[in-house]
C-alpha cells in the first residue's frame, strides 16, 4: 500500500466541496491505489456542516480514505499537504462578473498563501478554484515566497471541458476524440478557446467547422458566458462540473497526460509574449508531476487580439490587488 497523500480542500462545506470530496476519497483524483488524508478548511460558522460531510464520508467506508481533519485554521489545514484545492470563497450571483468578487475574496488568498508557505509540503500542488481564480492564484503565489511559484495554478479546465463539449456537439463527434484544444488567458468571458490546432482522429476541427462567424459569434460567447448561463438557470453557480474540472486538473498534473494537451492556468514564463508571472491559461502537457507549456504555436491576428483582451483584463485585476501584496 502507498503512503497516504495529504489533500487540503478549502470551502469544504460549500457546494463544490460536496461534489468534490467523495470523488477524491474514492480515488478518482490521485488513483485507485492512492490513499488520501483529507484536511478540510472552512469558516468557524461552517464547522458543523463540515462535520456532517465528514459523517457522510465515513458512511461511504472508502478504502482509500486514510484520515480526515476539519478546522478553521489554515495552518492546521495545510500542514504537510501535497495537494491543496483552494475552493472556499464567495461565489457571484446573478448580474455580477467574477472580477466583482476581487475585493471580497482577495484577502482570503493572502492569508492562505502565507499559511501554505509556512506549513505545506515544499512540492505542494495548489489549484485555485475560488473566483476570480487566476488573480486569486496570483495572490496566493505572491504570498508564498518560499514555495516554487510553479506550484500555484488556477482552474481553466472547466472552460476547456466546456469548449470540448461545444465542439463535439458542433461536429457530431465524440468528446474523447478531440485533441489539441487550448484555452488562453483568464477564467472569465474574455478567455480565448482556440481550436485552430484541434484534431479529431487526426482531422482538423477548424477545417471541419470552417465557419469563422460561428467561432466568433457563437462558440466563444457560449463558452465564455457559460458560468453566467448556469447561474441564471440554477440560481447557483456551477458546482458538479467545477468539481469535475478540479479533479481532471489535479489528476492530469499528478499522473500525466500521455502527451495530450490540457489547459492549466499557470504563472507565465514569458511564452507567447505573456509577461512573466501573469497567471494565464496555456495549453500544457504533464509528465512526472510537472507541466510544460506547448510551444511553437503560431498566433494569428485574430488570436493575438483575443489574447490581448484577456491579458489586459488580468493585468487590470493584478493592478487592483497590488496594494494587498506589499
Ligand atoms: P459556496 O458558497 O457553496 O461554498 C463556499 C464555501 O467556502 C462555504 O462553505 C464558505 O463557508 C467557505 N469559505 C468562505 N470563505 C472561506 C475562507 N476564508 N476559508 C475557508 N472557507 C471559506 O460556493 P461554491 O459554489 O462552492 O463556490 C466556491 C468558489 O468557487 C466561488 O468563488 C465560485 O465562484 C468558484 N467557482 C470557480 C469555478 C472555476 O472554474 N474556477 C467554477 C465554479 C465556481
Ligand atoms: C463558472 O464558470 O461556472 C464559475 O466560475 C462560476 C461563475 O461565477 O461563473
TrEMBL record:
PANTHER family: MALATE DEHYDROGENASE. It holds the Pfam family Ldh_1_N. The keyword Transferase does not apply. Substrate binds at residues 92, 98, 131, 162. Keywords: NAD, Oxidoreductase, Tricarboxylic acid cycle. Residues 157-318 form the Lactate/malate dehydrogenase C-terminal domain. NAD(+) binds at residues 11-17, 105, 112, 129-131. The active site is at residue 187. InterPro entries: L-lactate/malate_DH (IPR001557), Lactate/malate_DH_C (IPR022383), Lactate/malate_DH_N (IPR001236), Lactate_DH/Glyco_Ohase_4_C (IPR015955), Malate_DH_type2 (IPR010945), NAD(P)-bd_dom_sf (IPR036291). Residues 5-151 form the Lactate/malate dehydrogenase N-terminal domain. The lineage of its organism: Bacteria, Pseudomonadati, Pseudomonadota, Betaproteobacteria, Neisseriales. This is Malate dehydrogenase. Catalyzes the reversible oxidation of malate to oxaloacetate. It catalyses: (S)-malate + NAD(+) = oxaloacetate + NADH + H(+). Its EC number is 1.1.1.37. One of its GO terms (molecular function) is L-malate dehydrogenase (NAD+) activity. Belongs to the LDH/MDH superfamily. MDH type 2 family. It comes from the Bacteria.
